[in-house]
Structure formats: C-alpha cells, structure tokens
Amino acid sequence: MMKGGMGNLMKQAQMMQANMQKAQDELGLIDVEGLASNGLVKIAISCKHQIKKISIDPSVMNDHEMLEDLLIVAFKDALQKIEQTTDAKMGNMLPPGMKLPF
C-alpha cells in the first residue's frame, strides 16, 4: 500500500470516529418512555441509560407485587426502545453484523 493510501485510510478512520462520537452525544439527548399496563407505570430514560422520571398511577400503589412487575415491564420496554434507537442511529456506521456495545 502506498503512503497516500495509508494516509487516506487514517483520515477515514478519524472521520468515522468523529461521526460515531457525535452520534453518541446525540443519543445522550434522546429520551424514551417505557410503558407498562397502558401507562399505569411510565419510565423516562435517556439513551445513555440515565433515568429521568418514573410515574406510577395511584391505582397500583396498594398491590406491591403487581407494582414490582409493572416496573420491570416498563424498564424492559424502555431498554428495548433504547436499543432500537441506538441501532437506528449508529447502525449505518458499523460494518454489517457488528452490534453495539462492542
């Protein structure tokens, strides 16, 4: 490989790294909402996994076991939405078959 080709390859790698960093920064600004039981429990969380807000309908406060289950469902829903959002944002920057996180 000639010197010019290696320099060009390095520029492309740096550009890809900068684009990935920009996309990761943008993901930190995106919030998703996980829902359970038609919104009785809602969890707002950023795509960087920072919990922003948890809303619980008063009607489920008296049933401890059901509330625990609804929280789990809402968290799983939020995490699935984070994965989908991250894949959509970062997927076109990665070689086919490679997934985040590495």
TrEMBL record:
InterPro entries: YbaB-like_sf (IPR036894), YbaB/EbfC (IPR004401)
Compartments where found: Cytoplasm, Nucleoid
Gene3D superfamilies in UniProt: Nucleoid-associated protein YbaB-like domain
Keywords: Cytoplasm, DNA-binding
Top-level lineage group: Bacteria
HAMAP family tied to this protein: DNA_YbaB_EbfC (MF_00274)
Main function: Binds to DNA and alters its conformation. May be involved in regulation of gene expression, nucleoid organization and DNA protection.
Family per similarity comment: Belongs to the YbaB/EbfC family.
UniProt subunit comment: Homodimer.
Name used for this protein in its record: Nucleoid-associated protein FIT74_04065
Source species of the chain: Candidatus Methylopumilus universalis
